[in-house]
Write a structure and sequence with these properties.
Length: 297
Amino acid sequence: MGYAFDWVDAFTDQAFGGNGCVVVHGATDISFEDRLALVRETSLAECAYMIGSDVADFGVRYYLADKEIPMAGHPTIATVASLIDRRLVDMSSGQASFTLEVGAGVMDINVAVTDTGPMITMTQAAPVFGPRFDRGEIASIYGLNADDIIADPQAVSTGTPFCITVLRDKDALRRAVMDYEKLDIFRATSGVTRAELMEPFLVTLGGETPAGDTFSRLLLAPPSLPEDPFTGSATGCMGAYLWHHGLIEEPAFTAEQGHWMGRPGQARVEVLGPRDAITGVNVGGQGRVVMRGTLEI
C-alpha cells in the first residue's frame, strides 16, 4: 500500500537548511513499529504522520526513532508547509488560520504570505515550570564547569518538556560534548526518565548572525541522531524560561540554531502574557518542501 509523503526542511526558506522532517499523509493505519522504523530509515530526528482529527481541522502525530512525542516544533512547521504545498489549506487571501491536533492537544496555527514564502506560526501551550537542577550536575554531562551556566537549569514544557540550560557564551556552547553515561546517571538520580524529560537544551544569549537574539544546541542520546539541527518545541520552552526569569528584556525575539551543523535555522518567538503569568508562546518559521513521493510499506 502506498502513502503520499513530503520531505520538508523546517525553520528555513532554503533547501538543506533548518531541520528535515518527512510528513506522511493518510497514515492512520501505519503501525507504531513502522512509524519508528521510518524515522530510523530516514536518519531524521522525527517523522510526522497525518491521521485526521475529530476535534481540529487536521490531526498529526510525531515520532522519534524509539517513541512517540506529544508535541514537536519543526514537525509542526513541516506538516503545515506540506498541507500548504498540497493546497489542503486555502491561501488565496494571503493568510490562513486553523487548528492542528497533536499528541499534546490542539494548537492554533496562523499562516501569512511573505516575500520569501508562507510564515507559519504555532501557538504552543502555556508553559509548565518543573524542577530546577544543580548547575554542576548538568554541566558535567557536557564536560563543562558549573560556572559555564548562568542560571539554574529548569524543566519547562509547552507540550514536550526540556531542561533549559543557559550557558555563559558560545565558547562554552562549542565545548559541550555529551557524556551518555552521565546523562543516564542524571536521569536515574533525579528520578526523571527520558519519557518525562528530553535532553537538556543548551542556550546562549546573542545570535550566530546579526539577525539572531539567541543561539542554541540540542545534543541527543542514541538511538536519535547526535544533534538536532533546529528544535521548535524546545525553542518555545526556552522563550518562556528566558522571559519568566528576566533574562530577556522583550518577549519577542529571533532564535537561531543549526548554523554550526551547516543547516542554519531561524524562528520568530513571542512569549504571550506577563513574566509571572505566561499564557502561551508563539513560535514561527518557514518550511521548504525538497522531496515528495510515495512510501511503499
